């Protein structure tokens, strides 16, 4: 109903970004810039988006510096390791894929997000 006023999105598409309680603090629906944008606060959303992007760049620079330091010291550097997924090579296609390794639903049940990084 009223699809013509909603860019002909389905009900599912329209509700995908709805906030949900008790999700990981890294859930993209919690992005502060996105929340500001959705409430029509465009200028604030833009400033927040720039802040988040600079925060991401700083993390990347820190990881790159750690990798260089490890290389100079002759040590291995693992880099970023996803919390809920692991990278594997698909046996059929030979492509690198991410496979769920568990833990998210248990953390959600316990509301223990202590392993989540502060990304916002």
Secondary structure tally, helices: 4
Which percent bin holds the helix content? 40-55%
- Taken together, the total number of domains comes to 2
Low-confidence stretches: none
Largest beta sheet: strand ordering: 1-2
By DSSP, the count of extended strands is: 2
Residue-averaged pLDDT, rounded? Answer: 92
The largest pleated sheet is described as: 2 strands, antiparallel
Percent of residues in beta strands? 5-15%
SSE run: HHHEEH
Helix-strand makeup class: mainly alpha
Question: Could you tell me the radius of gyration in angstroms?
Answer: 19 Å
Shape: extended
How far do the termini sit from each other?
36 Å
Pfam families: Oxysterol_BP (PF01237)
GO molecular function, one term: cholesterol binding
GO cellular component, one term: perinuclear endoplasmic reticulum
Protein name: OSBP1 protein
């Amino acid at each position: 109903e009223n699809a013509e006023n909603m860019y002909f999105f389905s009900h599912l598409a329209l509700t995908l970004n709805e906030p949900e309680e008790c999700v990981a603090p890294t859930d993209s629906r919690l992005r502060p810039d996105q929340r500001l944008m959705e409430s029509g606060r465009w200028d604030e959303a833009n400033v927040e988006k720039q802040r988040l992007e600079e925060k991401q760049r700083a993390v990347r620079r820190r990881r790159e510096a750690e990798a260089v330091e490890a290389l100079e010291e002759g040590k291995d550097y693992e880099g970023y390791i996803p919390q809920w997924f692991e990278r594997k090579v698909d046996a059929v296609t030979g492509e690198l894929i991410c496979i769920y390794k568990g833990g998210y639903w248990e953390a959600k049940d316990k509301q223990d997000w202590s392993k989540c990084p502060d990304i916002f």
